[in-house]
Design a protein that fits this description.
By secondary structure, this protein is an alpha/beta fold. The chain has 20 helices and 29 strands. Helix 10 crosses helix 12 and helix 16 packs parallel to helix 17. The two termini are 32 Å apart.
Length: 628
């Protein structure tokens, strides 16, 4: 949308600064300075002010990164005083109201069908299911993740374009009076109610008042879909009927959808778990989140966006350069450490502003040469100390040589020294953990002293970090300047703290049959039935990450709240379970791990660790993300 058209839609008090670019094509709206993308010159920043922060104070940083157009109030003008001549400043009474007014205008330009979804929970799941069910027939614009708030809705509506054939937007409220502001932006032609309960109801006088507030979304709505059983799939079927689909098509698509094996990832719970670990640290202690190995199987891009947006994370860390490059292309701007940088990837590391782990003199020389070849200097690196893990890293006797080499070059600067605890999750290794921390601190002290002596002056503070997830909980004395969290983000605590489950691996029942006594189940005939049993087939196998060691009664799944054993050998794409005595039906959900069967329980059954279970879920398993 042309900037001048945006200005007319917002009706500002005044436009100051550079007015030569009013024909600029604005393609991106920005409310969080950390989320800046690859087209800063085509970005309009709305400087929202909250009780805790003021977006206007980040304007100078955004200008340095290429943003040139801003929406501010008169009270925020001091942040841009003196730099307005080469930037376009749109002055308004209320920045949030201006953002919402722009969304109302954008919605007025779209004449196609709009599905508006509200409810206490299930909004994101229904939206994503509808997208999967309808994407064959429509070019769909939908709310990103769970963008359903006073800020999220206008950012969602902004995505409407001439190519949009169907829009699906969520609307979430937390207090009275909010829906009347969301409704003009969404203006649904088809309304969807998932379920209205007591969740998040603390700011409503009653459940009836909450329902009445939510129903305001549907003012002027032609059709409202609400399934009395509040089953998400039945709700989706109702929407499809409203759009004119016949029953055969609905049944076929829903059958196809429900037969898929999916990994549900609740990004809100990721943030809540990070908040718990953050609460254990001093306010000045920084936090790095590990998003390597496809974000521990949960999806590195989506998890990284959630972490970047929560405001509690200072660094991300990946295993190899390609993972970091993927995050940069997806708009992640947080600093990213590459833990295992390949020699061949040095150019990609530098070009994408990634920070390599240096673990040997050769790896140091590699990065120095690569940086010098590009004519750069003071490029940030991180030095790995081998304090007892004996994987990668420098020994203490190498510190003098390391310090000397660092002092004779200007290509790189040390951002941090770090090491890795080998047994911080087990009390039997506590003495060794203390030994590691002592050794690590001595190494850092050796290097720092040598560098100070060589240069005669102290340089900027170099960060120290050694604590992983378990170390954060069990060794507060070693939090130092920064800590790293990995599996803890997904609900694992080594101190027994009940955290939030993030990932649920679920599938559905494909078929059910009664198998007579004396018959065998599966490859190898390892399960022989002693009596007639009801056997169900589920579309998940070891190629999906359903470990074959759970075969033949070694493992179990959850069907309608009941534990059902795995029978026969798990196949590549399917498995068999015994559902005798249940009232399970074809199409029922089957939980492999999740709220009812914790990840740690499954790991204990297999004699392994939760990391392996999560990272074993193959890429062919669809990930479904939501914020609920």
């Amino acid at each position: 949308m042309i900037l001048n058209e945006i200005i007319q839609a917002i009706c500002p008090l005044q436009v100051v600064g550079c007015t030569n670019d009013l024909q600029l094509d604005i393609r991106h709206l920005l409310t969080d300075s950390r989320q800046i993308g690859n087209e800063p010159e085509a970005t309009l920043f709305f400087a929202l002010k909250t009780d805790k922060n003021d977006g206007a104070k980040y304007i100078p940083q955004l200008i340095k990164r290429g943003v040139r157009t801003f929406v501010v109030t008169q009270n925020q003008y001091s942040y841009i005083s003196g730099i307005e001549d080469w930037n376009t400043i749109i002055l308004v009474e209320d920045v949030l109201a201006a953002l919402q007014q722009l969304a109302i205008y954008k919605r007025s330009l779209y004449k196609g069908p709009v599905i508006g979804i509200t409810g206490s929970n299930g909004k994101t799941v229904v939206k994503e299911w509808l997208y999967q069910l309808l994407k064959e027939d429509y070019r769909i614009t939908r709310s990103p993740r769970s963008y359903n708030s006073q800020i999220g809705v206008p950012l969602s509506v902004w995505q409407l374009s001439e190519q949009t054939e169907l829009a699906i937007f969520e609307a979430g409220i937390s207090e009275m009076g909010e829906m009347s502001r969301l409704q003009p932006m969404i203006q649904p032609t088809i309304g969807v109610i998932t379920y209205i309960g007591t969740e998040h109801g603390e700011n409503f006088p009653s459940l009836e008042a909450k329902r009445a507030e939510k129903m305001l979304l549907f003012a002027g709505c032609k059709t409202i879909v609400e399934d009395p059983t509040h089953q998400n799939i039945r709700t989706c079927a109702g929407v499809m009927r409203t759009l004119g689909y016949d029953e055969d098509t609905i049944a076929k698509r829903i059958l196809q959808q429900t037969h898929e094996t999916i990994l549900e990832v609740n990004l809100r719970k990721v943030v809540e778990n990070v908040k718990y670990y953050r609460s254990l640290l001093r306010s000045e202690t920084m936090l790095t989140c590990m998003v390597k190995a496809f974000g521990y199987g949960a999806g590195s891009v989506e998890v990284s966006h959630a972490l970047q947006g929560c405001g509690m994370v200072d660094y991300l860390a990946v295993a190899v350069a390609d993972e970091g490059v993927e995050l940069r292309k997806a708009g992640i701007t947080l600093p990213i450490v590459v833990m295992d940088p390949e020699v061949s990837a040095m150019d990609a590391i530098i070009e994408n502003n990634l920070e390599p782990n240096i673990y040997s003199m050769q790896s140091l020389e590699n990065i120095i040469q690569a940086v010098e070849a590009k004519g750069l200097d003071h490029y940030p690196i991180h030095i790995k100390i081998d304090s007892g893990m004996h994987r990668l890293g420098f020994y203490r006797e190498e510190m003098e040589v390391l310090a000397a080499r660092l002092s004779t070059q200007k290509a790189v600067r040390v951002r941090s020294f770090f090491s890795h605890l080998a047994g911080s999750d087990e009390a039997q290794f506590d003495d060794f953990t203390h030994q590691q921390a002592k050794y690590f601190s001595a190494c850092v002290e050796d290097v720092q002293c040598t560098r100070d002596e060589g240069r005669g002056t102290k340089e900027e503070k170099i960060l120290k970090h050694i604590c992983n997830t378990a170390g954060i909980e069990r060794f507060p004395e070693y939090h130092f300047d920064m800590c790293r969290i990995g599996i803890g983000m997904y609900g694992i605590s080594f101190a027994g703290t009940p955290l939030r489950n993030v990932c649920t691996l679920r599938t559905t029942i494909l078929s059910i049959k009664t198998v007579p006594a004396g018959e065998t189940i599966g490859y190898g005939r390892h399960t022989t039935l002693t009596e007639a049993r009801t056997i169900a087939v589920i579309p998940i196998g070891y190629a999906d990450g359903f470990d074959r060691r759970l075969s033949n009664y070694a493992g179990e799944v959850i069907v309608r709240g009941q534990k059902c054993p795995v029978v026969g050998n798990i196949c590549m794409d399917q498995a068999m379970i015994d559902i005798t005595g249940t009232d399970a039906q074809v199409g029922d959900n089957v939980e492999i791990f999740g709220d009812k069967q914790p990840l740690q329980h499954l790991a204990d059954l297999l004699g392994t660790i939760p990391y392996e279970i999560l990272t074993s879920v193959s890429r062919r398993v669809q990930r479904v993300y939501f914020y609920e």
